[in-house]
Amino acid sequence: MANTAAVSNAPFLWEGTDRNGKKIKGKSLATDEAKVRADLRRQGVVPTRIKKQSKGLFSGGGKITSGDISIFSRQLATMLAAGIPLVQAFEIVGNGHENAAMQKLILSIKGDVEGGSSLAEALSKQPLYFDDLFVNLVESGEQAGALESLLDKIATYKEKTEAIKKKIKKALTYPAAVLVVALVVTTILLIFVIPAFEDLFQGFGADLPTFTRMIIDLSLFVRTKGFFIVIIIAGFVSTFMYFKKRSRPFRHILDRMMLKAPIIGPILQKASIARYARTLATMFAAGVPLVEALESVAGATGNIVYEVGVLEMRDEVATGQRLQQAMENTDLFPNMVIQMIAVGEESGSLDEMSSKVADFYEADVDDAVDNLSSLLEPMIMAILGVLVGGLVVAMYLPIFKLGAVV
């Protein structure tokens, strides 16, 4: 029902006067003008003008990203810490958001809260944007009367996890972009440049060097079979993405291979450990029981290998095993991490020690990605140089040979 209402709601711009006679204006989400008028009167506002907001020529619904949710968390935490009531905070954040889809989501949650739902219940109606971890933390904050503090922890958690996600994307995207650029440049040369040299060489009346002949044959193959090559590559990519999204066993194999890959594997491992430690610290600081916390932690690691390992740890901890021993049994965590968690368990400061582990590995991932970028820059020049230079040399070899004969 909530989702249906959110889809049918529309933004309305309004102007009116408050209880003190002061002129105010704003924006509300409702099914029709009558609903807006009723909502405003319930808030003590006498509306003087209400109109439905029209969409601009280039305005779209927008797309809600995890970054939007992270920013929303920080805005809400800041406003509640400043003493602004929850409903008013939603009104301010929602009306001031540039993303139409995000604005609609925020005002929809505001409507649920105004209707008597708790914040956790309102968020749980939007599972695409607020996962169980987010909802559970908010619920813990509401029950403990410390919603401001918990929202601040959630905002910090979302900001940290978003930052590490961006770092990992950068580490994975950079090499892929290099390969794509090299492939495009090589293809252009093979299709448009090499044929011009081929026509020139036909008038030589002599055998071409082997390397030159190979490049010309490759050019002919790309020109005649290129369409089929593109279809095969597109089919492979589509199949890969299909199984990556829908097949958990395939993702498990892929994640395990990525962890063992040279250079990028250690970065992904450190990122998963950082997410594990950051989520554990946030959940435990919120007072969530360890067994329940580990279930949320598992899904936040970003890697199925670690997810399965953490779920196994949860089962062991549920039977009375210490977290330190359960981590050792998975063979997924370095000794330093295990020892720091052990110190946290013994001293009763598991959240603090987990946070320190997260800080260390987040900084380590930052350094590793920066070093990888520095390493790849000369490699890019070398790869492009070999590809382009090799093609140029192949085309000029017959000319050099002809000059030597003359």
Break the fold down into its secondary structure elements and pairings:
Layout: H1 2-8, E1 10-17, E2 23-30, H2 33-42, E3 46-52, H3 66-81, H4 86-95, H5 100-114, H6 119-124, H7 132-144, H8 147-201, H9 210-246, H10 248-260, H11 264-285, H12 290-300, H13 304-318, H14 323-330, H15 335-347, H16 350-405
Antiparallel strand pairs: 1-2, 1-3
Helix pairs in contact: 3-4, 3-8, 4-5, 7-8, 8-9, 8-11, 8-16, 9-10, 9-16, 10-11, 11-12, 11-16, 12-13, 13-14, 14-15, 15-16
Q: Span from first to last CA?
A: 86 Å
Beta content = 5-15%
Low-confidence stretches: 1-8, 56-60
Q: What's the shape?
A: flat
Structural class: mainly alpha
Please tell me the overall pLDDT: 83
Major β-sheet profile:
3 strands, antiparallel
Kindly provide the radius of gyration, computed on alpha-carbon positions and rounded to a whole number of angstroms: 29 Å
Residues in helix, %: over 70%
Taken in chain order, the helices and strands follow as HEEHEHHHHHHHHHHHHHH
Q: In DSSP terms, counting alpha (H) and pi (I) runs of 4 or more, how many helices?
A: 16
Strand arrangement, major sheet: 2-1-3
Q: Total number of β-strand segments? A: 3
